[in-house]
Every structure is written in C-alpha cells, then in structure tokens.
C-alpha cells in the first residue's frame, strides 16, 4: 500500500502553499513539527464544515423540526446535546471526516421510550437522514456504537409540551 498520507496526525497539517519567503516558511514548518511532536497521540486535526447549520434545531418548510449532527475524524458528535419538542424529528448525521466511519443509534433502554430509527454505518464524507416521532419528554442518550468506549455519545432532550 502506498499512500501519501500517513495515519499520524502531523501528516494532515498540510496547508495550501502560501507565498512565504524561504526562511519564514522553514520556521513555520519547524514550529508546526514541534507542535505536532509535543502533543500526545494526536487525533487528526478536524475541520467542521457544517458551521452554523450544525447544532441548531430548525423547523423545515414542512413543519418538521430538523437537526444536523456532525462527526468527523474524531470521536465527537457536534452538537452532543440538543433539545427538540415532542413531535416529528428529522435528524441528519453528517460525517465530514476523511477517514473514519461512524454510526448513530439511540442507546437501548436508556431513554424514556425506544427510538429504533438509526444510522447503522456512515462512511467519511457521507450524510444520512432519519425521521422519527417523539412523544415522551426526557433525555434520550445516543451513541456511535463503534466508538462509545471512546466517549462518542450524546443526548437528545425532548422538552415537555407547552
Ligand atoms: Cu464513531
């Protein structure tokens, strides 16, 4: 296997070439390397692309509340917590990573009611949407079952009506 990109975090620090003078460029590279070496087994640097759209529960044109949860080349859901009102929910999981595969399922037996809709596998660069209806207020923990041991969990709260 020949791949230009190593699994190490440092390899992903590449940036578009900038018109820097030679010595300055060398200095920049040196400090980048130093920074990379001093950190612990670093996760690849992650860029979130959804920005303001991720994490905001919004009401779509058809009246369904929508939320986009983003994940990437790490073990984090963004947002990890959000609140919806009782009713229909359209949840999109966006994997903005380049390497890692995730899923999203509501932790069995953990919430006030079962939500069986799930996103079983989501490869890098992909997004998938599920829809479900919630009626019972309370906290519904969800997880990436691949990485739950690494802390990739979140909680959807269903607010009380009225
Ligand atoms: Cu995961």
UniProtKB/TrEMBL annotation:
UniProt keyword list: Copper, Metal-binding, Signal
Molecular function in Gene Ontology: copper ion binding; electron transfer activity
Lineage: Bacteria, Bacillati, Actinomycetota, Actinomycetes, Geodermatophilales
Keyword Signal: yes
UniProt-listed SUPFAM superfamilies: Cupredoxins
Protein name according to UniProt: Plastocyanin
Superkingdom of this protein's organism: Bacteria
PANTHER family: AURACYANIN-B, COPPER-RESISTANT CUPROPROTEIN COPI
Signal peptide: 1-35
Domain named Blue (type 1) copper: residues: 67-158
